[in-house]
Amino acid sequence: DIVMTQSPDSLAVSLGEGATINCKSSQSVFYSSNSKTYLAWYQQKPGQPPKLLIYWASTREAGVPDRFSGSGSGTDFTLTISSLQAEDVAVYYCQQYYSSPLTFGGGTKVEIK
Amino acid sequence: EVQLVESGGGVVRPGGSLRLSCAVSGFTFDDFGMTWVRQAPGKGLEWVSGIDWNGDSTGYADSVKGRFTISRDNAKNSLHLQMNSLRPEDTALYYCARDMGVGGKSSYFDHWGQGTLVTVSS
Questions:
Q1: Which chain A residue shows the shortest CA-CA distance from B58?
Q2: Inter-chain touch A101–B100, beta carbons under 8 Å
Q3: Helices then strands, each counted (H, E), chain B
Q4: I want to staple A79 with a disulfide (CB 3.0 to 4.6 A). Which of A21, A53, B62, B75 is the partner?
Q5: Is A40 near chain B, with CB under 8 Å?
Q6: What are the backbone angles phi and psi of residue A88, rounded to the nearest 5°?
Q7: Over the stretch A50-94, which tens digit does the pLDDT of each residue have?
Q8: Is the pLDDT of residue B4 over 80?
């Protein structure tokens, strides 16, 4: 199974400042045959189901603000919030869909400093 | 508007069974794979099982393999999860989600239901 490790477990950021969440996979999730990276990011606010933010490591889902961006390749990935807003307080998860079983990272809790 | 509504959760004793359902509307159900993801209280997300558009291909987490069975009824726009031999560690909120399925395999999930709570306790 591919293990997804996120860091940090939590972070506190001032409003308007940037936030960076890291995700590392235990093996590459890049498929050379189609040059695609099988990684997604989700946001989960308290009491709500997860919401898809990013897929294919860097493609923003429709309607997601452009302050959210995904980057990385191979085994190391980053979700960046360029200017934190109050509504961004949530837990963020990465997920690989390169191979079954699909696996999620442990989550990163983002709070306001 | 895409809607996914789970039902069937409840309290069950260890060793018991439950059947979860997910009623879907707002999109052509048999154009998409579907999946179940669970979240234990205060914990992270765990993929449980996925199924392709016509039910020919299914996948399971090791933790539920042999105990849970995923199925779908395209005529009724519904997804199901039959859960047998339930254990306390199966206690969680169970979400159904639309799977954007790549090449017939489970992938990422773009719409989620609100979840149904399963509690396994004596």
A1: A100
A2: no
A3: 0, 11
A4: A21
A5: yes
A6: -90, -5
A7: 999 999 999 999 999 999 999 999 999 999 999 999 999 999 999
A8: yes
Alpha-carbon gap: A8 to the closest alpha carbon of chain B (Å):
14
Label the pairing between strands B45-51 and B58-60: antiparallel
Beta carbons of B108 and A40 less than 8 angstroms apart: yes
Between CA B48 and CA B72 the distance in angstroms is 15
Contact flag A95-B45 (C-beta cutoff 8 Å) = yes
Across the range B30-49, mean pLDDT stands at 97
Q: Are A35 and A57 in contact (CB under 8 A)?
A: no
For residue B104, pLDDT beyond 80 = no
Nearest to B115, CA basis, from B1, B4, B2: B4
Dist CA A45 CA B80 (whole Å): 26
Give dist(CA B32, CA B112) in Å, integer: 13
Q: Answer yes or no: do A49 and B50 touch at CB < 8 A.
A: no
| Two structure tokens written together for B95 | 């979400």
Residue B102 has pLDDT above 80, yes or no: no
CB contact under 8 A, B47 and A40: no
